[in-house]
Amino acid sequence: MLYLDHAATTPMRPQVWEAMEPFVSDRFGNPSGSHDVSRRAKNALEAARERAAGILGCNPKEVVFTGGGTESDNLAVKGVALSKGSRGGVVVGATEHEAVLEAAAFLGRLGCRVGVADVDDVGLLDPERVAGLVDGETSVVSVMTVNNETGAVQDVAAISEAVKRANPATAVHTDAIQAFVSRSIDVNELGVDLLSLTGHKFGGPKGVGLLYVRDGQVLEPVLHGGGQELGRRSGTHDVMGVIGFVEAMELTEKDRSRFVADVITERTAFENAVASVATRTVPVEHTSVQHSHLRVHGVRNETLLVRLDRRGLAVSAASACQSGANTVSHVLRAMGMGPGEARECLRVSFGWSTEPGDGVRGAQILLDAVEGMR
Fold first, then answer.
1. Hey, what CATH topology would domain 2-9+255-373 get?
2. What architecture is domain 14-250?
3. Using CA atoms, how far apart are residues 344 and 261, in angstroms rounded to an integer?
4. Helix ranges restricted to H, 215-335
């Protein structure tokens, strides 16, 4: 099987498991305890927090470890809005991840005002139009750095600047989960107050992530209990998962130049080879290097995916959160695509384990499948 669905999840890097393995047995302690076994776990947890903070350019106490990207997004959007009560208005981009859109919809049912910023036909937001939805009661604006489906890259720094001009008290959150794969992330350069990451998109374990929370930003916890993470996220820490997550962050940082060069080579080879049957939905200059979102003209993606799977190529038609759903992607709808166009779209995504020749090999499998269908 040729795996080109890294935007859904990635294989774990071998070094990550090596870093995690001691915490299965020898260092199994609960970091909330007081004896030596717990202290060793606590020390490892806090050392990992410092390493993560160093990568993001923030203070360790601004790092909140979570159970993954969905929890991080929910804690950011709900946490800020609920800290304001019914006055906690929210603005989100139309192409956000379901974790953000559903969190906003939940807040709307509680009486919070929800604004949705439209995108253009390639999925980009206009910073001034986003800011135009902000008023005195807007508590948080959430915009994704890199779209998980199409790879479209938003100018988060410009959006944050525009939002702060409209209302300096409004917090800005970005889901940077897909972005960290191929782009260095500095929270101060982005100008954001909250930022979400999860490990399994860049070679770390599933079920662990973080939320950067700028010092002074008030959050209402989504999970209540023992008051871990300075009261912002209760629950016993998955120390082993955190260790693996931060190890993957560091490996991704060190490997990024190699990764970007190799992936651009494979993605370009793939797209050049399939140009006779498929076209990009977003111009290459506006997307991440690892995403290739294509419209395969005249071919239904549901059938194509089955044929590709049988031929040994793993790709997807939408985000992993929508796979299997008999609906048209909300991302493509927001970009102005009709159902017929959207059902011809395919997402191919490359990752850290992509090898030389994978682009050409994947293209040939796709071409053979399309020819068989036609």
1. Aspartate Aminotransferase, domain 1 (3.90.1150)
2. 3-Layer(aba) Sandwich (3.40)
3. 29
4. 239-273, 301-311, 330-334
Q: Taking the model in full, what pTM does it have? A: 0.95
Could you read off the pLDDT tens digit of each residue along the chain, which spans 374 residues?
999 999 999 999 999 999 999 998 888 888 888 898 888 999 999 999 999 999 999 999 999 999 999 999 999 999 999 998 767 899 999 999 999 999 999 999 999 999 999 999 999 999 999 999 999 999 999 999 999 999 999 999 999 999 999 999 999 999 999 999 999 999 999 999 999 999 999 999 999 999 999 999 999 999 999 999 989 999 999 999 999 999 999 999 999 999 999 999 999 999 999 999 999 999 999 999 999 999 999 999 999 999 999 999 999 997 544 445 457 899 999 999 999 999 999 999 999 999 999 999 999 999 999 998 87
Amino acid occupying residue 266: E
Residues in the chain: 374
Radius of gyration over alpha carbons of the chain, in Å? 21
Nearest Cα to Cα of residue 179 among 167, 171, 187, 169: 187
Active-site positions? 321
